[in-house]
Amino acid sequence: xxxxxxxxxxxxxxxxxxAVAVAAGFQLRELTGRxxxxxxxxxxxxxxxxxxxGWLSGKAVVSYIEAYDHWAAxxxxxxxxANMIRESFDTSSDTPQKDPTRGARxxxxxxxxxxxxxxxxxxxAALKVSIILPVVxxxxxxxxxxWIGLLLGNRMLSSRKVGKQAELMGGGILILxxxxxxxxxxxx
Length: 188
Description:
single chain, 188 residues, mainly alpha, globular
């Protein structure tokens, strides 16, 4: 997997974190450096750790699905992408009610925004991709996108539209990466 694909994957995965960060930034009237750091650090850390967990799990079963690994990666990426696209059209309010940069809420948001990365880690194992570079890129991109999302959300009147558009774009990118994987395996 080349660097541009890894970067696109990282950007797509960071869209959930970005969308939540925009909403959190909109909700937090006083956005301090400490709050920015806490949310950005945790989102980046969880986004980096979840693919490792998925990759390690995937390595255990990769020999059983080797002939179909590209299909597994395609299905997982498309499933994640489709869910992100579906969620981008969700009209229910997802703005946190309490400080999202503290305590259990911070951990739960970090987990929720990084679950897609778990499945991506499994896909990377199926494709026999080294995990080191993707993990670093995914973590750094998530950290930066969270930081930017917090700042944007804090300066906007309505965070919902930008956050949902980011989630829609992220879902589309994941689906395109899935199609690219099939193309690389000469499926079409």
